[in-house]
Amino acid sequence: MIESGPRGPLPGHWTWWEDGARDGVSNMAIDEALLATVRPGEGTWRWYAWSVPTVSFGRNERIAGRLTPARLAASGLGAVRRPTGGRALLHHRELTYCVTMPLAAHLPWRAAYDAVNQVLRDALRAAGVPVQLAAGSGPLAPEGPVCFDQPAAGELTVGGRKLVGSAVWRHGDAYLQHGSILLHDDQQLLQAIHPSAPPAPAAATLAECLPDVDDETLGRRVRSAILHVLRAHGEVRLRSEPVDDGWLALVASHQRHFADPAWLWRR
Fold it and tell me: Is the CB of residue 264 less than 8 Å from the CB of residue 81?
């Protein structure tokens, strides 16, 4: 059963976008373009996938001195630095979401983070996943083990293990949160770029929670549950194509930023 409660900072109007698989640079460029075009009272919930297994690094995570371009190239993994904080994680067999929405100046970023995670919690429970919100005092520092090593405060866990890894960024009165809901635990692939690091502890997965359901059905079930929760809070319209030239130009400008080695190796 889906829990109801106050909407808090969630907007009353949403655009729902089920996008396809793209490379890491394109995915981050689209997320940041959505952040740049946030409008009052309107949010966007985007779903997407990755054309190749890709490691993403947090905005302020230090990889210089720990990782070399040669090792990264030899790993066979795609790589990108996110516009959001947090630590490294491997994107592969997962459901990836992005939320952009307005956030009034007087509200802390945590208000939006908690509201989005409550939507995720209610929807995952409705889909049959026994998730809990992790306790704690705040986000993890950008320096340290990989993202799924331990849950940050407010993240979604099953049996104490992280199921959903989320990262955020606030720009003025606009808020971005994106994250990974694991279908399977592929985080051990990060050993290819950090061979001396201790193996990441096992993460929770949707496949483990619902072992008799195939991945495609799991994805549909989770997306449908989240869409239902959003509709309980406001109006939702489905994104339709085509998009205008201004949008394409904006995304292209952000692609140049995320493809720049100076951004990837900034720290």
Answer: yes
Between these two residues, 72 and 224, which has the higher pLDDT value? 224
| Domain presence at residue 226 | yes
Model-level pTM greater than 0.70? Answer: yes
Number of domains in the chain: 1
User: Which strands sit side by side in the sheet containing 42-50, from one edge to the other?
Assistant: 132-133, 156-158, 161-171, 174-182, 94-102, 42-50, 13-22, 235-238
Q: How many CA atoms lie within 13 A of 249 on its CB side?
A: 3
Question: In the predicted model, what is the mean pLDDT of the chain?
Answer: 89
Q: What is the CATH number of the domain that holds 140?
A: 3.30.930.10
Cβ 69 vs Cβ 265: under 8 Å:
yes
Domain that holds residue 169: 13-264
Q: Is 98 a catalytic residue?
A: no
Is residue 260 in some structural domain? yes
Rounded distance, CA 259 to CA 3, Å? 41
Residues 10, 77, 147, 204: which is the catalytic one? 147
Q: How confident is the model at residue 113 (pLDDT cuts 50, 70, 90)?
A: very high
Residue 180 CA to residue 205 CA, distance in Å, equals 11
